[in-house]
Amino acid sequence: MFPKKVYYGLRFVLAISVYAEEGHIGVAEVADKEDLPVKFLEAIAVALRKSGIVNVKRGAGGGYFLAKPLSEISLADLVAVLDDKSDKEIAIAGNNSEKAVAKFLKQYKAQNEELLNAMTLDALRQIHSDESEKIMYYI
Q1: Checking DSSP bridges between strand 54-57 and strand 63-66, what pairing results, if any?
Q2: Within 10 Å of residue 124's Cβ, how many Cβ atoms?
Q3: Mean pLDDT of successive 10-residue segments in the chain (139 residues)?
Q4: Torsion of CA 48, 18, 125, 32, to 10 degrees
Q5: Domains of the chain: residue spans and CATH
Q6: How far apart are CA 86 and CA 68, in angstroms?
Q7: What does the alpha-carbon distance between residue 30 and residue 40 come to, in Å, rounded to a whole number?
C-alpha cells in the first residue's frame, strides 16, 4: 500500500527516536543499524528536513533529530512528504461506470486520509517498545 520510501522514512524517524542518545544521529549510523541503503536514506532525510519533521545539526558529531515530538507527527505528514502519488487527484469524468468508480475511490481516499491524520508516530514508538520488551536473552 505504501512505497518503500514511506516505509524507510518511518524506520528512519523511529531510529532517531530510539537511538539518538545525544539527541541526534547520523544517516550512516541509522542505515547501519537498520540495514538500509545510505543513499536512499539520505534523500529521505533531506525531504523530511525540508518538511520540518526532522532537523539537522551540522558538523563533526552532528546528525538528525526530531523537530517536534512524535505525538505531533502524523502518518499523513510523513506520507505527504514521501509518497509522490498520495496527492494525485481523482477526476470524476466519463461514462456512468467511470464516474461511479471515481466517486467510490474518492470516498476511500477521504476515509484513508482521515485515518492517516489520526495516527501519530508515538503509536509507532509504543509498538516498537512493546516488541522490544518481548525479546528475552538467556545466558
Answers
A1: antiparallel
A2: 19
A3: 92 91 86 94 96 91 91 95 82 88 91 93 90 67
A4: 70
A5: 4-134 (1.10.10.10)
A6: 23
A7: 12
Beta strand ranges found along the chain (DSSP E): 54-57, 63-66
pTM of the predicted structure, to 2 decimals: 0.85
42: Cβ–Cβ under 8 A, 6 or more apart, which residues? 27
pLDDT score, position 90: 80
Residue 90 C-alpha cell reads as 481523482
- What's the grid cell of residue 88? 494525485
Q: Is 57 in a helix, a strand, or coil?
A: strand
* 13, three cell numbers: 524517524
CA distances to 1, 92, 102, 110, 118 from 89, rounded to whole Å, are 17, 10, 10, 11, 21
